[in-house]
Amino acid sequence: VNSSLTTSVLAPPIPDFKAQCRSIQPATGHIFDLSQAVPSYPTFPKIREAVAQSVTRDEVGFYTDVPGLFDLRKAIADTHFLISDRDPNRVLITSGANHAMFTALMLHCNAGDTVLLLEPFYFNYDMALPMLGLKADYLSVAEADGMQLHAKKVIARLEANPAIRAVILITPNNPTGACYAAEEVLEVVKWASPRGVEVIVDETYLKFDPHHLNQSALSPYLGKGLTLVGSFSKCYSLTGYRVGYLVTSPDILRESLKIQDTVVICPSHIGQIAALEGIRVCEEDVRREVARMGGLADKVREATKALRAFRLISAGSFFAYFKHPFTHLTSAQASLHLFEATGIIGLPGTVFGKSQEAYIRLSISNVSENDLDRALGELIRFDDSCATRAKEKML
Ligand SMILES: Cc1ncc(COP(=O)(O)O)c(C=O)c1O
Prior knowledge:
Layout: H1 4-7, H2 13-21, E1 32-33, H3 45-54, H4 70-79, E2 91-94, H5 97-108, E3 114-119, H6 123-131, E4 135-140, H7 151-160, E5 164-170, H8 182-192, E6 198-202, E7 226-231, E8 244-247, H9 250-263, H10 269-281, H11 283-303, E9 311-315, E10 319-323, H12 331-342, E11 344-345, E12 347-348, E13 359-363, H13 369-394
Parallel strand pairs: 1-11, 3-4, 3-5, 5-6, 6-7
Antiparallel strand pairs: 2-8, 7-8, 9-10, 10-13, 12-13
Helix pairs in contact: 3-10, 4-10, 5-6, 5-9, 7-8, 11-13
The structure holds pyridoxal-5'-phosphate (PLP).
Pyridoxal-5'-phosphate binds at residues 37, 96-98, 122, 170, 174, 202, 204, 231, 233, 239, 244.
C-alpha cells in the first residue's frame, strides 16, 4: 500500500475487538453481543414480500438512475418534515448513510480543510476524514451536560478555528444515544450558514426520537449550509440492503452526481425497492418497534440505577454509554474484562475518541428483551463484585 490516505486510519474496530474477544472464554458461558447497532428484529415481512416479487422483474437486475429511483426520492421528499417544498431533486439515494456522509464531505470540503467532530464520535466518520485528505478537530461533549449538544460551545470552537469548513452532528447520537435539541442544532446552523461552514447532520436514528429536529426554521437552510444524511438500515432493519440518502439543494445534488456515478453508479436497485416499500407500508411496524426499543432503553435506565461501580452516562433507543470503574485499565482492557466476567461484548470508548478511555458503549437494541434482561443481570452482578472489592481495598 503506497497511500498514506488509508495507512493512518484505524482498522474496522468492531471485527477487530470481536477478534480479541475470541480468545477469551466468558465465565457465564453465554455471549451477549452488544457490539454493533443492528436492530433485534428482522426485515419486516411486507418488505420481504415486495422484494421477492420484484426479483422476478427483469429491470430490477439493472442500474437505476444515478440519483436513485425517482419514486423513492419523491417518497422521501413527500414525507420528510424538513423538505418543505417537497422537491425530489433535493434527495440523493446513497448506498447507506456512510456513503452519504462521504459524498457530503467531498462536496463541501477541499483537501487540507478541517472538519469538526463532537467527541465521542462515530468512528467511521473519523476514519473518512484522512481518506479524503481532511483534518479533524475534536470537541468533547461533557458528561455534566448529559452528552448533549451545546451550540455555544460548538460556535466558540468554530470561531477559534477558521480552518473548519464543516461540522458533523449526529442526532440521535452514536455512541451516546443522546438526542440533540433542535434549537441547539438551529443555533449552530444559523451561525455557520452565512460563514460558509457546512453543518452535516446525520439522522440515521431519526425515527427513534419523537422530537427529532422538530424546528421548521431549519428547512430554509437545507442546501444553504445544512445537509442531511440518513439511512434505511436501522428503522426498517435493512442493514444488508445498503440504502441511505442525502438531502441538500437541487444545485448541490447535481454536483453530487459526479461522485455518485464514479463511486457506485447507483445504489443497489433491490435495496431501493425495499426502502420504498418501507416508507409506503411499514410506518406502523416502525412505530411499534420504536416503542418497544424505547422500552429497552427505559429498562436499562431503571436496572442500572442499582450500579455502584459502573455508571450509566446516557442512553437512547440504540445505545447505552457507561463509565467503567477500572481507572488502572485502558477502555479496551476494561471491555475485555467485562466480556470475561459477563459475556457482554461492548465496544471500548477509545473506538470513539482518544479521550474516551473511561467509557464502554453497549448497543442495547440488538438482543431480545429476554437476553437484555439476562445481560443486565450479569452486569449488575459483576458491578456488585467490583464495588465490594473496591470497598475491601479501602478498608
Ligand atoms: C451514526 C451512524 N451513521 C451511519 C451509520 C451507517 O449507516 P448505513 O448502514 O446506512 O451506512 C451508522 C451505523 O451504525 C451510524 O451509527
